Amino acid sequence: MNILLTGATGYIGKRLLPLLVEQGHYVICCVRDKDRFFLPDHLKNQVKVIEVDFLNQESLIAIPNEIDAAYYLIHSMSGSATNYDELEYNAAVHFVDRMNVTRVKQVIYLSGIINDTQLSKHLASRKAVENVLNTGLYAITTLRAGIIVGSGSASFEIIRDLVTKLPVMITPKWLNTKCQPIAISDVLEFLTKSLYHPETLDRNFDIGGPDILTYKEMLLGYAEAAGLKRHIYTVPVMTPKLSSYWLYFVTSTSYKLATALVSSMKVEVVCQDNRINTLLKVTPISYKEAVRRALVKIDKDDIVSSWKDAMISGQFMGNVADYLKIPKKDCFIDRRKKEIVNRKFTMERIWSIGGETGWYYGDWLWKIRGFFDKIAGGVGLRRGRTNQHDIHSGDALDFWRVLYANKQEGKLVLYAEMKLPGEAWLEFKIIHNTLYQAATFKPHGFWGKLYWYSVLPFHGFIFEGMINKLIKK
Fold first, then answer.
1. Residue 309: CA atoms inside 13 Å, Cβ hemisphere, count?
2. Helix (H) or strand (E) run with residue 192 in it
3. What's the CA angle centered on 14, arms 9 and 18, to 5 degrees?
4. Which of 12, 48, 6, 32 minimizes the C-alpha distance to 305?
5. Rounded to 5°, angle at Cα 205 from 201 and 207
6. Tens-binned pLDDT, residue by residue, of the chain (473 aa)
7. How far is CA 391 from CA 105, 179, 183, 345, in A?
8. What are phi and psi for residue 428, nearest 5 degrees?
9. DSSP state for residue 285 in the 8-state scheme
C-alpha cells in the first residue's frame, strides 16, 4: 500500500518509517525541509520524500492522490508559539481538506488520553484535532496514549534528567497524580497493527502499559533501574509556574514544553479499558521493562530518534538551506587553521563534539554560557546530542543546530540556538591536510557588537585550545 506519513522527522515518525517499509509498504514522507531529513540508503527505494507545510494549504498539493492510508503525527506543543493549539487546529483542517480529494481509506491519529472534562491546553488541543479529523470522508482510527517511555522521548528524558541530577527532590504535589505509561515499542506495534484492521476503523482506543503509577513512582522506578538511590518529598505550595521553572532549569526541556507538561500532569491519564490489546493481540510490557530497554539503547548509543532533534525544540526558524550560506558582510569572524596529522582521528573528534564529550577546551566556560542562556530563556547546554558519534543535518547539538554534516567531505556546520543579539555559526572543514575552523557572528545593532567585544577576550584560548585538541592525540 501507499502510506502517507506526516511528522516524519518527529520522535514517533522516525521510528515508524522503517517498520512500514519492512512490512512492504511504499511510504510518502511529509517534511517541511528535505535538507534536515536523513534517509538511510536501505530505505530509499521504498520511500518518497515531499516538502509540505501543513500551515500553508497550497503546499499540500505535493501530496499525491494515490495514497491508501495516512498517519497523522503532527504536534507542536513544544514549539515557541503560545497559540500552538490554534496552529494544530489549522494544520488538521488543511490535512482533512487534502485527504478528502485523495483515495485514502484510513487515517490513523496518535492522540492523548482524555479522562477529565477540565482538560489542559495540551490535551484540549489534541481533542480538538481529533474532532477535526473525524469530519473527513475516510475511516479514522484514534489511538490515545499517555506518557511514552523510550530512549529520546520528551517524558523519559525529563525523568532521566531529574533522577540523574537530583539525589533529593522537593517536588510539587502533582507528582502524586496517576498515569499509565506505555513503552515506545508498544506504541509502534499498536500503530502498525491498526493499519487497515477492519475492527479499528472509525473507532478510538486508549493504549497503555500494564502499570498504573504516580509520577513519583515513575521517578523512583527509574532510579531503581539505573541503580541510583533517590529521595522525593512532595509539597503543596509549588505553583504551576514555579513547577515549570523547576523542570526547565533542571532538565533539557524548553520552558513552553515544561509549562504544557505541568498543566497536563495535574490530570490523571489512565486507560478506560484495554480492549484493543485483545483486538490486535498486543501484550504491552511493564514500565520497569520499558525503562530497562531504554537504558540499554542509551548505553549502546543506539537512540533512533529524540524529541530534541525536532526543530520545535529550539529557536531555529525556516529551512536549513536558508542558513547554510554563512554571511561575511558586516560579520565578525574568528578564523583558525591547523595542519592535521591523522585525518581519521580529527574527523572522529569533530563528529563527537558536544554532549557528554564536551567541547575539548574550556568546558567550564561553555557550561557558564549555557547557564546564562537558560536564565535568558534559551535552550542551554542540556539538550546534549542524540548519538555520541553520529550526527545529521537538523540534529540538536547542545545549544547549536546542525545545518550540514558530511563526514566524507569533512565538513560540519552548526547554527547557534542560544539567546543572542545576533546570529552565529561554527564551521569545521578539512581540505587536504588542513583543518579550517571558523566562528562567525552577525550582530544585530549596537548590542550585538557589544556582545562580540565582551566575549572576544575568551575566544583566543577557547577556539585555539579547541582546534589544537581536534588535531592532537
1. 29
2. helix 184-193
3. 140
4. 12
5. 135
6. 999 999 998 899 999 999 999 999 999 999 988 887 888 889 999 999 999 999 999 999 999 999 999 999 998 654 445 677 888 899 999 999 999 999 999 999 999 888 766 777 777 888 899 999 999 999 999 999 999 999 988 888 888 988 998 899 888 888 888 999 999 999 999 999 999 999 999 999 999 999 999 999 999 999 999 999 999 988 877 677 777 777 778 887 777 777 777 777 777 889 988 899 999 999 999 999 999 999 999 888 878 888 777 655 555 556 666 678 899 999 999 999 999 989 999 999 999 999 889 999 988 989 889 888 888 878 888 788 888 888 888 888 999 999 999 998 999 999 998 999 999 999 999 999 999 999 999 999 999 999 999 999 888 889 999 999 999 87
7. 37, 34, 25, 16
8. -125, 135
9. P
Which amino acid, residue 456?
L
What's the order of all strands across the beta sheet hosting 26-31? 47-51, 26-31, 2-5, 69-72, 106-112, 139-145, 203-207
Measure CA of the first residue to CA of the last residue in the chain; give whole Å.
Answer: 52
The whole model's pTM is what?
A: 0.85
- Find, among 216, 252, 219, the residue nearest to 235 by Cα: 216
Residue with cell 506505555: 182
Q: Closest by alpha carbon to 382, among 366, 358, 360, 398?
A: 398
CA distance 373 to 284: 40
Interacting residues of 355 by C-beta distance below 8 A, sequence separation 6+: 384, 385, 388, 397, 398
439 phi, psi to nearest 5 deg: -110, 115
Looking at residue 409, its amino acid is E
* Lookup result for grid cell 486507560: 271
Separation of alpha carbons 210 and 193, rounded Å: 19
In this structure, the number of other CB atoms found within 10 A of the CB of residue 341 comes to: 11
Which of 309, 472, 337 has its CA nearest to residue 401?
309
User: b/e map of 434-464 (b: 16 or more CB within 10 Å)?
Assistant: ebbbbbbbbbeeeebbebbeeeeeeeeebbb
DSSP letter for 286, please.
P
* Count of CB atoms situated within 10 Å of the CB of 359: 20
DSSP string, 4-17: EESSTTSHHHHHHH
Query: Per the structure block, which three cell numbers stand in for 372?
Result: 546564562
